[in-house]
Amino acid sequence: MTDISVTEKLGIGAGTIHARDMTTDEADRETEEVSRFITPIDQNKAVAVCIDGRGRASAVHGAVLPLGPHIAGGAATVLVAAESQRFPLTGAPLLAYLREHGFYLGAHLDDLHDERHTGCGACDKCAVSCRLFEDNKHSSQIEVISQLLLGDEIGGDKLSRVTLHSYNSSIHDLIDEQLIETLHGDDDETHGHHEQLVLFNYLPGTTIDRDAYVEQTGKQVFTVDMWYLKELARAMAEYDDGIEGLTTELYRSMAAFQIATYLALCDGSHRAVLLKEKPLSMAPTLV
């Protein structure tokens, strides 16, 4: 069984991507609709891509990737986490290590990109995102979001403990061409971003089928697969298991980068949707 909850507006952000105003009932209906697109993935083939809710650009050459998890910037999430935690591997060697362990990290362009910009805000604004997070991480809004996303599962530690550092390489110089997709961007202020919700998915082995959702409803949603962040953190920590608590630190950094990306791209008007497994009810004890 799935436990689905929707919050009030996140209330903090310096970007331009805006969600339309919704009543609580409207938000619940939108949440119910998008939850119908929860889809299992084949983790042997899955390629992790960005949280971007725009659909693929049909007229532009680019990989058609197997359905996979969604995390900010795809590979950008692990690159930031590695820099932030001073991990022994960074850049291409880190991505190669993760590939060897079954984690394929992708990226995207959009069909409006130029030589200076990929069209992926998580990548193009990575340094800006990290600075915004540092400037706001002690705010009450970030504290609420931290508790919302992490709760007590890692000892109640807050995201304010994280210090984010951007990576310096061009992400597309680090990733194989077949792991780069092209998304459609309209020539408007937000390059075609019309995401109405930010969905945080904790259901292992699943994601939202972005393209099916766009094609069938004409709508967009940001998707962050939190369960996949945990798997990435565990896989990275196994490389250097001499550091106690490294999995938690990496997971916390990855979670912080999801919020940092939101701060840079969006204006705080979005509601968060949390998809979690319902806890099993306790059976009665016979005395």
Could you explain the architecture of this structure?
It is globular, with a radius of gyration of 18 Å. Residues 282-287 have low confidence and may be disordered. By secondary structure, it is of the alpha/beta class. The longest helix is centred in the C-terminal third of the chain and has 20 residues, at 246-265. It has helices at residues 24-35, 76-84, 91-100, 121-124, 126-136, 140-150, 171-174, 210-217, 226-239, 246-265, and strands spanning 2-9, 38-40, 47-48, 104-105, 107-110, 180-183, 195-201, 206-208, 220-225, 271-277. A 4-stranded mixed beta sheet has the order 1-10-7-9. The chain has a two-stranded antiparallel ribbon with strand order 2-8. The chain has one domain (2-277).
What's a quick, concise take on this entry?
By secondary structure, the chain is α/β, with parallel strands linked by helices. It has helices spanning 24-35, 76-84, 91-100, 121-124, 126-136, 140-150, 171-174, 210-217, 226-239, 246-265; strands at 2-9, 38-40, 47-48, 104-105, 107-110, 180-183, 195-201, 206-208, 220-225, 271-277. The protein contains ten helices and ten strands.
Short key terms for the protein model shown above:
287 residues, alpha/beta, four-stranded mixed sheet, 10 helices, disordered C terminus
H and E string = EHEEHHEEHHHHEEEHEHHE
Q: What is the strand content?
A: 15-25%
SSE class = alpha/beta
Task: Please count the helical segments.
Answer: 10
Order of strands, widest sheet: 1-10-7-9
- Please report the distance between the alpha carbons of the first and last residues: 29 Å
- Number of distinct beta strands: 10
Total discrete domains:
1
What's the average pLDDT?
91
Largest sheet: 4 strands, mixed
Helix content: 25-40%
Unreliable spans = 282-287
Shape: globular
